[in-house]
Known about the structure:
This protein is α/β, with parallel strands linked by helices and 315 residues long. The chain has one domain (18-304): NAD(P)-binding Rossmann-like Domain (Rossmann fold, 3-Layer(aba) Sandwich). The chain is built from 10 helices and 8 strands. It has helices at 30-41, 53-66, 82-95, 122-142, 176-200, 224-231, 233-238, 246-249, 251-258, 292-306, and strands spanning 21-25, 45-50, 71-76, 101-104, 149-153, 206-210, 267-270, 280-282. Helix 1 (30-41) packs parallel to helix 2 (53-66). It is globular, with a radius of gyration of 18 Å. It starts with 20 loop residues before the first strand and ends in a 9-residue tail after the last helix.
Amino acid sequence: xxxxxxxxxxxxxxxxxxGRVAVVTGAxxxxxxxxxxxxxxxxxxxxxxxxxxxRAMAAAxxxxxxxxxxxxxxxxxxxxxLASLTQAAEELGTxxxxxxxxxxxxxxxxxxxxxxxxxxxxHLGVNHLGTFALTSLLIDRLLPTPGSRIVTVSSVxxxxxxxxxxxxxxxxxxxxxEAYAQSKLANxxxxxxxxxxxxxxxxxxxxxxxxxxxxxxxxxRDFPLQQKxxxxxxxxxxxxxxxxxxxxGALPLLRAATDPAVRGGEYYGPSGFREYTGSPVRxxxxxxxxxxxxxxxxxxxxxxLCGVSFGPVIA
Length: 315
């Protein structure tokens, strides 16, 4: 899919966002920061929803330095804690009567088994359950807003996943790569089920997914040896065609969030080889992500594990 001019979609195609309120999780660095920076430059009112307040404040300063007059605020939130998510949603609801964009970007990838504050396996708990809970807690600010969107960030890793409904917490034979991939598949199952429910009630709000390809971000910061190897000049030179910098990786997210042609339930990623790099286009996810039974069962399990519900409006 190209821009109306027939050229690849770029940051220049992001339309004016004046008057829109955008909440971006994980916005202190990497993809989230790039998305927030562009939206602020286009006039949006930005909320940087981050776990680390100091890093979020530093990111806000960088954005306002680049875009004087930008409207940027900080919301501390830890997706690994339901209590933190609940408090953040209450504070956001008090501050903003309407939310136009919720960009579920924050995520983790760790080389060991760990758990959230609520006892959930960390990849599932942060990447999926935290996203699921935050969206449910903010849905009442999104539904009344014309043209509102919920963008959830998945990964090419979802192709290697298998949803284990009998062991969502990856308790048996834990492998971090499989747990991470399952959480990214869960992001897609959630997006598609959410869109189906939104469409069923005739909501203007749409749910869309995106992935950045092989973006060079801090996601591997907990992998010291691998990070050193990947970051070496020789490896970078030899594999540069497989990686793209955060500004390029952020483009599929920005297109999903702002392109007027986007429709609910679509998925955006890079156009190049295996969707590793390239301009943002509509892409396809694996067949398992479209399994209606899996979508419904994961939704029910997520409500049970989170202790939250989207309520009767989009049940």
